[in-house]
Amino acid sequence: MNTKAVKKRRPFNVWIKSRDGQKVLVMLSFMIIPLLLLFVFTYLPFGEMFGFSFYKMKYTGTRKFVGWDNYLKVFQRKDCFGALKLSLYYMLGSIIQLVLALYLATVLSFKVKCGKLFKGFMFFPYLINGIAIGFIFKFFYTRGFVFDTVLQWCGFKLDSLPYWLRDQRINNFSLVGTSIWRYFGQNMVLFIGAIMSVDSSLYESAMLDGANKFQQFIYIILPSIRTIVMLNVILSITGSLSAFEPPYVITSGANGTGTYFVVMHNIAHTQQKVGLASAMAIILLIIIIIATILQKLFFKYVFRDAEDDDPKAGIRRDKKLARLAKRSARAAEGR
Question: Is the pTM of this model over 0.85?
């Protein structure tokens, strides 16, 4: 007759001192403490801010419940919602930034003389504090200073040069150039890491099929790093919508350079309209969420031939490479 051994249950104070109890305690500590910090410093302040958006209030004093009036004012005031138009400058800059970063990453991913040195130089601006970069470029663009001096060395006269931070036709482009200089190194490093993870046998197969470097980039590299491309685009677009440091430090939002974040900062801290500024922050969050969803749908359509779960995707990609190889062969025969 088989008897089942009954395992005696240990008291809690004995179990918690045992090896199994210590494992559970450590796991719970590493899980609960970060979640608690995240709740206290992120979700709780966000919930408070969402509540503030329904009140007409200052940092001190009485509050007056106004419902959705603050949200309506954001769309009615030119200095609030109109400031989002400046995000188009930064979105254009983010496109240039990503294209430049992807091009340099593709070049530096392969054996290039002094490649590591170039990577370090290009990534270095990202390590500098944003406020420090703002002060650097404030003097860089000041009339008669660094940029104007360099242009005079190239043969330009000072009187013919514009005021880079005062002329409203170009001052936002000047600030966008600052953002490109700072952030393209970060995008480049992410792209390099993704490109170096691509299987080298794919390049060899493509070369045997007659694919040139550009075709290898379009049909091998780009689909293989689509996740990093999506990540960089999402970070760049959301960063464009929330640009703050360059216009705030360099121009203080003057001469038509006040972005949405700069206006929100002035409304919250200078005008003491906390409820209106909170409503602006909530609306910006909604816009960023919508932009992120649209970007994901766009890239899902663009990279539909590169989906790993779709068995037909590889067939379509191979057919394209075969057609390109035939065209290359015909062009070679024609020569």
Answer: no
